[in-house]
């Protein structure tokens, strides 16, 4: 399996591709801006890239199927005065910068209906309306939660969206579900899953979970990789390790209300269960009642603290081992509240390790 892709690099790659495509399209525009005739001559998916296959990325791939939540290039003529574009009755936002008389580059709204619908794209311009027949399908799967540290043979539940005819992959091992709905899959865990990523494939494509199997210190509860946990001053802090009103991954998270004097939350690590040669850092998802910051301290090395900033919505963050003293082993992870405004109410989830 290829490594999980860097989202910013993909965004830059996409925008560069769009620029090339639009320049090519503009070369076909007539000098007066609009050809007059409204028609569609072809549809292409802007980028096709299976995350399970190395080196398969293609740009501008012709297709007769539109999967919601993806970018497409609509080619034809008469688009210069575009007013709206919709798929199965739901409008998708378009950026006028990405529209020429001969091409529309569009991110199809992820909420576009796809089940028992009319399979229709509707283009409305100042000069007329075109209804165009094209198959509309769901987005790639959205994985919301799963047990990160399962044992071979366990029957686990994966939650998310768009699980239409799903197959679950543990690394390169594909497993058929025991049962599934559009939002839930039950599957039996195969052997040899450590240091691999779970992914789900539906009729539209594949989504790879960001957490590698067996890498969690906290996943709805502290796991066997952690040996102890607590607060520096529990008498002046609130600490709920099974808060079930909100979660980044799974169904529970840690709710920690820190005191006014830069308090700390610590997690002991069973170093015998962590092979440091496999990992490059620590991951955590965090948000606060107020936007703020924490410092991460590893193995009590206060000379190499790593600052993390977060807002009031869940933020995924990584701490490279090189930023916390390049430890040869992992015995303790500490989060120190450093907002500087008298404490904060923090929510912490998905604490674990990041594969190299």
TrEMBL record:
InterPro entries: Galactose-bd-like_sf, Ig-like_fold, Ig_E-set, IPT_dom. Pfam families: TIG. Residues 1-24 form the signal peptide. SUPFAM superfamilies: E set domains, Galactose-binding domain-like. Keywords: Signal. It comes from the Bacteria. Residues 149-207 form the IPT/TIG domain. This is IPT/TIG domain-containing protein. It comes from Flavobacterium crocinum.
